[in-house]
Each structure stands twice: as C-alpha cells, then as structure tokens.
Amino acid sequence: MKRSGSRHCLHRRSRFSSRERDWLKEDVKRGCVYLYGAETATATTIASVASTVTSSSSDLRLVLCTVETPASEICAGEGKESLYLQLHGDLVRRLDPAERPLQMVYEYLGSLGFEDPVRIQEEATNPDLSCMIRFYGEKPCQMDHLDRILLSGIYNVRKGKTQLHKWAERLVILCGTCLIVSSVKDCQTGKMHILPLVGGKVEELKRRQHTLAFSSAGAQAPTYHVSFESLAECQRWHRQASKVVSQRISTVDLSCYSLEEVPEHLFYSQDITYLNLRHNFMQLERPGGLDCLYRFSQLKGLNLSHNKLGLFPILLCEISTLTELNLSCNGFHELPVQIGNLLNLQTLCLDGNSLTGLPEELGNLQQLSTLGLSFNNFSQIPEACVKLTMLEKLSMAGNQLEVLNLGILNRMKHIKHVDLRLNSLKRTVIDNVEGNKHVTHMDLRDNQLTDLDLSSLGSLQQLHCERNQLRDLTLSGFTLRVLCANANRLTTVNVYPVPSLLTSLELSRNQLEYVPDWVCESKKLEVLDMSYNLLTEVPIRILSSLSLRKLMVGYNHIQSLPDLLEHIPLEVLDLQHNLLTRLPETLFSKALNKLNKLEQLEELNLSGNKLKTIPTTIANCKHLHTLVAHSNIISIFPEILHLPQIQFVDLSCNDLTEILIPEALPPTLQDLDLTGNTNLVLEHKTLDVFSHITTLKIDQKTLTADSAGASTFWSHGLAEMAGQRNKLCVSALAVDNFAEGVEAVYGMFDGDRNEELPRLLQCTMADVLSEEVQQSAVDTVFMANTFLVSHRKLGMAGQKLGSSALLCYIHHDTADPTSSFTLTVGNVGTCQAVLCRNGQPLPLSKIFSLEHCPEEQQRVKEQKAIITEDNKVNGVTCCTRMLGCTYLYPWILPKPHICSLPLTVQDELLILGNKALWERLSYLEAVSTVRHVHDPLAAAKKLCTLAQSYGCQDNVGAMVVCLNVGEDGCTCEVNGLSLPGPGGFAPTAVLKDAPKPTTPSSSSGIASEFSSEMSTSEVSSEVGSTASDEHAASGLDASLLPRPERRCSLHPVPTSGAFQRQPSCATFSSNQSDNGLDSDDDQPVEGVIINGSRVEVEVDIHCCKGKGLEASPPALEETSLTQGPEEDSGGLIFRFRRQNSVNCGTLLPLSRELQKSPSTSCLYGKKLSNGSIVPLEDSLNLIEVATEAPKKKTGYFCAPTQLEPEDQLIIPHDLEEEVKEQLKQPQDTRGGTNSEPWEEDRVDHPEEFDTAL
Length: 1253
Description:
Helix content is about 15%, strand content about 20%.
C-alpha cells in the first residue's frame, strides 16, 4: 500500500477498513496521523480593505503514513502549504518540510514511557492523544489572541472635539501602543495619522451610540472619535485600548502567541521601550523577524526567552539602546563576539542554554551588573567575568562546577551575590591569602561539599549551604546575618569572631551534640533552629537571650530545661520529641522585675515527651494562642482555658481523665483536640460548653460494623483532612473486591492546589487498570500502562494541572495462579505506600522530587529546565514525575516507579499517604502508631491527627489497609483435608465418637466434617505417580474425571497438566432411613433441608492443607495397622457408581476426617452445580456432615430415600480384573468384620504438602 496521504484520508467518523488494518499490522513503523483544520483562521487584507474574516474549522482527516513520511509529502497529498504542530494545547509551530510527523508521535510516546512498539502504534491511533500532540493543516489562532496583537477595521471617524469636523470613513488599526488612522484607498501609500495612547484616554461618547474617543497624553494632543457598528465590537476596542492607556511605560507583551514575526504595524509604535516576545517561534529572515527589531529606536528591554533560536541573532547587537536582554532557553552553544557592542547593557540573562564559555569581548560591557549563566555547561567561572568591573550578581546554578575557586571571586572587585546552587562542588581552593571584602551573599545549596571554609569572605552576610555533606563549617562573623546549613552532617560550626549581627541561624538535621558557644554570645539572634540533632541540653545562656524570638530544638535528646531567672521575649518555643519528664515549676512564673518570664510566649510545642503535668503557672502566659502537647502522659488538664488569646489546643494521646471548665470559655478558642485519651469521659454539659468551638476532636464510640460482605483478607480505612485550606485536594481510591474477584485496588491522589485532577483519577484509574490487566500479564507492563493511559485520559484538564498518584494492586501472579497474593505498587510524585512487615516498615514507593531524587534532578538539569530557588521546576512544582502538567514536558513525565513483591503472613498493614503525611511522620513512627489499632478507619484518622499535631496545616490523607493473607484467612471449604505426600495420601485414623473440634471464629469459617466406612467396591490408585497417571488416562473414561474444585485465593486450583482429583461438590446417596437421616436420629438437624424424598445438604469439599488439626488420642498413635500392597504405597481408594443415565459416575476419595474450613461465604459469587455422584454407603454418617455444613450455598449432597433401579456398579472393562483383586484383598484383611474397628486402627500421619487431590 502506498504512503501517499491523499490516498488514505478518512473522515473523522470513518473507521479503518480490513485492508487498512492489515496494512498497519504488517509493520509497526506504519501508523496514522490525525490532521486537524484551523480552529479559527483570521486574515486581515488591508489592500482590499477587508475586515476580519473568520472561517469555521474544517473536518478532521486521518492520514495513513510511515515513520519515514516527511511533512512535505503529507502536504502534497492534502493540498496544504505547511503542517503545524501543537503540544499540550499550547503553542503552534510550523513544521519543516523534512520533519516526519509519525516519527515525532512515536518518539513522544516513547519518551512518556511506552516501550512496546505494537502498543506505541496502538496509542498513536487514539484520538484522545490530540490533547497532548496535534497536527494542523492550517495555523489556528484564537480570536482573543488576535485582539491582543492587532485590531483593525473600517469605521466612521471624526477628528477633533468640535462639531465642525465631518465624519469620514477611515481604516483604523490598534497595534502596540498606537492608534493608526489612514485613508481607505491610500492606506499604504497615503498619509497616516499615528496617535500614541500610553498615558492618554479612551472614553465612551454618550451623545453617539457605540462611539469611543481616543486621545493622547498632553494638553495639545489630538482626539479621534470612532463609531462602531455594534456594541460587542465597541467593547472589544475599549477593552484593549484601556490596557494601553493605563501603562506608564511603553510596554508591549506579545508572549505565548506562536508568533514567527511581529506585526508590521508594530514598528509605527516608536515609543516602545520594552518588548516581550517570550515563548514564541520567532524567525530571523522575515519582514517582521528578529533582524528587523533594530528599527525600534527607543527599545531598552527585550525578552526573547524560550524561542528555540539555536543561533544568536547577530543583528540584535546593533540595538545600542538595550539595557536588559533575556535570551534564556534558546539552545545557544556559543555567543558571537559582536555582543561586546551592547555597551549600555546592564542585565544579561543566558540561562538554560548549552554554553561552555564566554567570548573575551563580553568584558567590554562595563555597565553590566547582573549576569545569568544558570543551567548551562560551564565547568568553571569564566575568566571574562573578571573583566566586568561593575558586575554585582553572578548566577551559575545548575552547571558542572566541581571546584569553587575563591581566587577568581577575589579578583571580581564588585561582585556581591554569587549563586552556585545545583552544581557538583566537592571542594574549595584559594589562590592567595588575601581576603574578599565584596561578596555578601553566597548560595551553595544542593552540592557535594564535605568541608567548607569561607573565613576569607570577610563581608559575608548571608550563606545558604543546605543539602550538602558538610561535617565542618568555618565562617567569618564580622558581618554575618543569616546562616542556613540544614540537612548536612555537621558536627562542628566555627564562626569567628562572634557574629554580633547574626539574626537567623538554621542548623536542623545535622549531628550537633551541643550548641556552639558563639551562638550563646550572639546578641541579636532572633531565630534559632537546631531540631533533629543530638542535643542533650539547652544552655541557660540561650534561654536567657534578650533578643531570641523563636527557639526550635525538637527531635533531640533533651532531658531537662534550666530554670529561668529573668524575663525573656521568647515568642515560639518548640520542644517536641525530646526526653522531658517535667518542666521547671518556675518556667512560667514571674521574674524579679515582676514580669512573667515568658510574657511574650505565643506558641508552645511539648509533643512527644514524657510529661505528666504542665505547670499551673502557664496561666501567666497571657499572649499564648497555641499549645501542642500530644503524645505525653498528661493526666491533669492544664490551666489554659483562662487565657484570653488561646486559639489552638492539642492534648491528644494523653491520660486525661477530666477537664475543669471555667464559667466562660475564651471566645478566641477555635480548635480543641482531645482524641486518644481513653479514660476521658465528657458529659453532655461539657459538650454544650464546647459547642461554640469551631473544631472539637474527641473519640467516638466504635460501632460494630457488619462485615458479612467484607473481604476476608483485607479491610481498609480512609481519613482526609483539609487542614487550614478551604478545599480538599486529596482523593483516594479503595476497591476491596476488584474485578469481581479476590483482588483489591487502593490509590491516593494529591493535586497540591487543584482538586479536579484527583477526582478524575479517582473515577477512572481503576477502570484503566482493569483494561490493562486484560492486555498484559506482566505486572510492570500493565501497571506502567495504567499510569500512562490515565495520563492521556486526563485530556485538557491535564494540560495545565498535575497530580501525584499512588496505586496499589493486590492480586495473584497471573503466570502462576497457585501462588500467594502479590502486591504491585506504582507511583509518581510524592504519594507513598509503606508496608508493615513483621512490625517493621518497608517503603514501596519512590519520591519523585528534586530534593529526594538526585537522578531525576540531573535529568531535569540536562533537559535545561529552570529550577528556581525554592526547588521547583520552572517555579511550578517540586515533582519531576506527575500525571498531568503536560505543558512542562519533557521535564515532567508520567512514567511511574513500580515495585512488586509477594505478600506473606508477616505482612500486617499497608499505609498509603500523601506528601503532607510523610513530611511529618517517619515510616517507623507511622507503623508503630497504628500497628495495634484493629480498626483501620481509626488507624487512618490517628495518622492524620498525628500529622496535624506535628504542625501540618495542609491537606493530609491517609489510608490504612489491614492485611490477613495467612492461612487464617483461608476460605477453602473443608480446610484441612488430608493432602498427599510424595507417595500419595497418608492414612488417617478417625474415631467415630471422638470429640468434635472447637468451632472456629467467623474469620476462620464454619467446620465441616464427615466419616465413612469402606465400601465393598473400591478402586485403588496412587496419586502423583507415573502409574497413577497412566491408569487415569487409559482406564478411566473422561466423563468419570472430577471437574476442578472451587478453591480460596490462598490455595487456587493448580494449572498443572497432571491428573488432579479435585472433588468440588458431591452428591451422596443413602438408604438407611426414609427421611435421609441416620436411624438413630429422631429430629431433623439444622442445615439439612428435607425436600420430599431427598435430603439436600449444602457443602463444598475442597482439598487444602489442614491447620490446627485435632490431636489424635494416644491410644490411636500406638495402634498398629496391617496394610495391603496398595495401601503400603500410599494409595488412595476411590468408589464410583452410576446414579442415572444423565449423570455419569464421578470419583470421590474414600472419606477420612475432613477438617473444618475457615470459609463462610463464596468469594466468587457463583454457585457450582451438582456434578459428583457417590455410591450407596452402608454407614455414612450424614448428620455429621449436615451439622457442620457451611451455610453459604456452594453445592449440595442429595440423598434419595430409596435405591434407584438404575443405581448399579459400573466398572470399565479394562479394570475389571484389577477391581476384583481389590475387592478380595480388603475382605481378607478385615476378616469380614465390621469396618468400624478397622477404621479406628488407622494411623494419623502428619501432612506435608498443600497439593489438591
């Protein structure tokens, strides 16, 4: 089949014919491209004096092609001049004739995460893909975009304010900052009136309908009255002109319009000083291209970032008036030497390119004060920077620097701000001992430094060195004001001299064992954060500081606090998670100057200690509005309800017994948390007093839920809390019975600031997973495709919005249905799942963020994304993989991390949580907190409450899944049936009058048990041996083989091709009594349904490994048994007979004691038909079977009252001789006596194999 696009164009509603489908299947390099018509095509023809013309969108066309088909061939076949590409509903780019559209689609899908070529070919034919990648035959343009670029039309115009001037028909154009009025006939060659509008006025004329008056700034400025034909058109002009006249500086913003050139009429606005052309596709050699921008005589600022220029426009160097130039993200590899001509340039931004060096001519820019070189490929600070004598700020974040050369900074006499974030710095060097007195701000975050000595920077005021590997830090303290060194391995921090100007010190998450002495001597220190260290005490000099406002020393090993002597201005005191057992009684009392020692205290956090009481003197803290003291052993409610400004009180997880309530509660109290106090009982009067509180959290009485329809293996609880935000942007997915089987799906979705995407994923992701499981049996494949397809299905909502996603799928291994449950977890973003295995946390997810994933950070850097100072990709999100946010492709991808592992009996819990939960709780703390909470809902609520008590104010969501996938969760009917060993079934001794096993709980099921005696007709067969297989294949008719039995999910039916004897449902016949009961019983037994002459007993027999088998009496263990030749080999005896002409005889093993099954319900929801027939028995104890029969309808026994005429022993011809021998041997062995003593003499052997009969 030919590739010509014209030969294979289909209408949008057309389907592939069989011929076209066959053509596609022949080669995965074939496919189709959807070609869209322009949504709105606008053309303004001034020569013909035509107004705006809008054409409706044309039909969608489907073009069959291959990956080798160029755009020019498709254009020729479709009669188009060019093809246009639109990604994620954003900009539209003209394709080069040599570009290949189908290859671009395939590469795009591959970069998202699709790997299978056949699946890529299938996805490329999906019309939903158009929300991410779309091709146009004409360039689309929205009407509002056109209005912002240029407005034009022929209207009646009058110049001046007096009535002497007449109305005349003129061509009017609003473009840039000017209103252009010209003659209709001579619009291009005749006289044109240009009216600057910046600072002017645009007003509606009341005397004339739909008329606007335009005037420039100044007293003698002319005025033009323009009369429009309709109100809508008048409003369009008025809206756009109002934006222009409101400006103080002549600025034109044409960013994000897919422009290839600027409008020709824009050059009439000669007063433009700042032109923004960011995020377009500007070309060089065009009438309004970049080579013509020098025509703006007063241009001072030009933004050409994100235009993918590739080459530096040399003619830009002729715009001598430029003071600010932004050329970020254009793929430059080098700069021309002509850049030295921009002598007035003060700010040059070259971030996000591929530069490795700078020309020496750059040193001519003596006015340059700010130079941005971030996210390029520099390996050292360029020497050209030394020549820039006025350079104050140098940004080189995200490059490839490994050595910090302080000598170069010493030679840059005016440098003040140096940004070296996100490099690979490992050490520092200095050429000379001369100190640097110019650098005031240094940013070294996210590097690999182990030791840092910046004592030579004598004027350093602010240093950021977070997230390195620092052990020692040495600084000069002459001018130091702010030091942030969190998340390192610091053991010592030396600052000399004492930083007398230091106001903020952050040293959290290090290995400091004491507070440095110089910190205690800092006289202006206001904020001190030393949480997550190894502190054992807080120096009295710190607590006595007269400048300290905020002290955070949580998560240390502090055992006591010193006594305060004087009043201090402390406002925030954080002592959470230490080893405090008591607080000094005088901590909140009055000082010698009669002022309270903590008079200004506003927030106090004492959580996670071992406090029994809080001093009553806390009532002296009149400004206290927040008290957090959860997870202690406080038994007496502190005296805080008298405080006039108290707002938030958290005393959860303590030992409170009662609350002393004052006559009137403070009106400011908004949140009171008393959960987790098991001994606290609140009376109705107390609750009435608390009724005005906005949020009151108390323990609710747990209601016993009906778990009849719940899964035996797992149950879940979900808690979501909005925190202090107005909306909840977290959604969860929970399906305990997924796909109508014993499977489960759980998910968590966090949209950060949007609630739309989490809701969409909640509704669609389970359905997508169900579809993908049908297509692939490999867990990594179907889970990855689930995320990628869900990403596509977000449609237009996923273009600008994004969401973290976590999906957990509990299932059987599709390759081995007899295996145990498997847990497959996939995630993108910051939602995480943690498995509690034997009391220890086992993380199953990966955090895809710039801080936690170095390889993702490196990938984003290599793709030239801009990482802002708050560690966000392009200032939008900290995540590097999400569902949605397609406009941030290729930096943000939907490809998930996938983890798959089998579940074991040691697995207790599965915890799912969003970012806010895991930011506050460690894995171990979360597991230990809820491990012994039996109610999953209460456990989930406890986790959310705990996160909020730790200061979480954002949306928080937690889901707890209690797992029970051990043998206790088995639902096989008749659990405990004797299973064959390597040589067959071991004989089992059964006492007829033996005590019945204890009835198990509802979680383990209802027991089922029966015993029988040997019949006169028996067939012996070995299980698992070669002879047995041959015997079954040749001697038994296929209709006699039992159908596969129903098994629980812990013990699925094996898929082996070997002969398996698995009686699932059986029908027993008996003629011992006319009502189907034994002759000794007078009353019907519960569970036995009497129906005329038949007794139907509901039961389902399964073969599974016994658990908790009843111990045999010692007498039985000592009994010896003489076995025949067949019994010595572990043979299993079968009986079979024909009941009627319709139902063929079916095999059932000779009954031993069948252990009770833990099943009480049918997991699959399908009732099996009666398909097994068992012959007449002499002493079948049917009442024992009926008494212990499961109540669920999973099969039945049928016992006719009388022997049917057709009931007779049927023996295949080729087995007659063998059966006769078998019939003789038991009679000889038993001597014609009753079978009951022989049955009791059998030995009970332990079972070792969980193999189906």
